[in-house]
Amino acid sequence: MAATQGQGIDDILLNISPTGQSALGLVLALIMYGVALDLRVADFVAVFRRPAAPLAGLVAQLLVLPAVTWAITMALQPRPSIALGMMVVAACPGGNISNLITHMARGNTALSVSMTGLSSLLAVVTTPLNILFWAGLNPHTAALLRQVSVEPLSFIGSTVLLLGVPMVAGLLTVRYLPRLADRLRRPLQILAFVFLIGFIVAATASNWRYITVFAQSVLPFVVLHNAVAVGLGWGAARVLRLDEADTRALTIEVSMHNSGLGLALILNQFDGLGGAALVAAGWGVWHLVSGWALAAWWKRRDPASAREQGAA
Prior knowledge:
The protein is mostly helical. The chain has one domain: Na+/H+ antiporter like fold (Up-down Bundle). It is built from 15 helices and no strands. The chain has helices at 3-11, 18-37, 41-49, 52-76, 80-91, 97-104, 109-137, 139-147, 152-176, 178-206, 211-239, 244-255, 259-269, 274-299, 303-311.
């Protein structure tokens, strides 16, 4: 790919007004508050009853994928903002859409919900730490962090605040105001989704001249990155010899991240760095495509039958 095209991606900065920054903070809070409203104690009890599968998935998702992502960026040397976007997405927890996709794929939906809940809780700490650690190990993204003036302690503190406060508020609402939680859950999730789609559309419209650059310079990395995540989830399940329903849940959960959270973080914490934002937005679209494709394939195969064929 031409260096001028890649550099064009790096040069994109999505300028956001102070009002826009405040709106982004609100969207980020809504995302995490909405996630917390979906969490139930029973989901976590299920994890402790059968810990091998969810723990393997969390290790693959929160530890292995960020490390592999760093290795990919070092080997393939994408432009710095693209590499940073990949690392941000890899550091994000699972997204709630994975629960629906797992259900459609006839996988273990309870396992998917448990993993999403746990990864979302852990993300308050793991997301900023993974971003700073792995981006700091790549000299190109480390330079980019300095360029956009990301101070490690400030970044960790502000991210914990942005993610942790709404998460705690959501958990408290579920615990003490369950009826209010039931009323707010769906509207808030829809509202956060609409806001994020609005930011994606606005960013695309204002940078339409880069759409060809995106297709050539960003999309291949998004597709490869997602394929690696699919392979990690499936591989972790096979190593543990999980049954077919658990394998499907693990594969989908590891490969479907909360890219909306990643996009909001990039816009809010990284000065709207366009290349990174395009990676997060592109992942948000592509993981739906790959997830639906997996679900369509697995939906036609009964988990029990698939397990028997695999054992034969």
